[in-house]
Amino acid sequence: MFDARGPLCAGIDPHGALLQHWGLDDDLAGAERFAMTMVEACAGTVGFVKPQSAFFERFGSGGIVLLERVIAESRQAGALVILDVKRGDIGSTMAAYAQAYLDPASSLAVDAITVSPFLGVGSLQPAFDLAAAHGKGLFVLARTSNPEGKQVQMARRRDGRSVAQSIIDEVAEHNGEAEPLGSYGIVLGATVGACASEGEARLRESTYGITHTQVRQRDTAHDLSDFNGPILVPGMGAQGGRPSDLPRVLGPAVNFAIPAYSRQIAQPGPAVASIRSAVEALQAECRAATRE
Ligand SMILES: O=C(O)c1cc(=O)[nH]c(=O)n1[C@@H]1O[C@H](COP(=O)(O)O)[C@@H](O)[C@H]1O
């Protein structure tokens, strides 16, 4: 998929602000128009689409029916569907979540889902098992794109590793020696190590006595050299991440990157041709940044 269609993942997030920007009402009919236009513009050309479940759930059962349609039509158009649901619970409940999204008998079954390991990576075992049984994938949150994630994810364990690194290492174990790539990925935000502004960089320097470059190096010090799974990289575009950030954030694993854009690719809409040409331009940039 990386070679055939490129690494870019098109997020399908029927955001209230985007619906308004497209001249639509923020209701189920508006979300349907938005989501199906994004499917038409993207799913036949990109390798991966990523609907965010919350933007559909907010419309209740009608939103779930719409999500089912987005999933079915995206897969029919040849894209792999990564459903962003960030599920994570005690093992017995996790088994039910896994059944909902990874069992082909479910109308919400997709190719992969995002999962949260903060009840312990071990609590996700039923999802690993069901994914293996049905040839599906998981993306485990390791270092998220939001600034608040750092406090938990970069906390140091007694063995010196960060929490994020220990998650990366545990997921790598699940992939074992899989060739060319295991089915279990991680989520690593493109914004990691970034300062919101020059002012913030100067404030950090004067407050903590360390330069922005040092902060950035510390924040991006993930060892991905043994990681043989796909890496979902949100935080692109609207949150500030650029294709040129990918080598800095991912180092040797840059060619496993799936850079994900949601708001930025919908911005030129609602015209299908405008969305498609924006996606194609970003696809070319991401391909160049991840295949050097
Ligand atoms: O798992 C995700 O996709 C995700 C993880 C993360 O660390 N940060 C993050 O922004 N996301 C999701 O990626 C999308 C980002 O949207 P944009 O900022 O509009 O590109 C949203 O659907 C988020 O929920």
TrEMBL record:
Pfam families: OMPdecase (PF00215). Residues 7-278 form the Orotidine 5'-phosphate decarboxylase domain. It catalyses: orotidine 5'-phosphate + H(+) = UMP + CO2. It comes from the Bacteria. It is an enzyme of class 4 (lyase). SMART domains: OMPdecase. Its EC number is 4.1.1.23. One of its GO terms (molecular function) is orotidine-5'-phosphate decarboxylase activity. One of its GO terms (biological process) is 'de novo' pyrimidine nucleobase biosynthetic process. Pathway: Pyrimidine metabolism; UMP biosynthesis via de novo pathway; UMP from orotate: step 2/2. Keywords: Decarboxylase, Lyase, Pyrimidine biosynthesis. Belongs to the OMP decarboxylase family. Type 2 subfamily. PANTHER family: OROTIDINE 5'-PHOSPHATE DECARBOXYLASE. This is Orotidine-5'-phosphate decarboxylase. It comes from Glycomyces buryatensis. The lineage of its organism: Bacteria, Bacillati, Actinomycetota, Actinomycetes, Glycomycetales. The gene is pyrF.
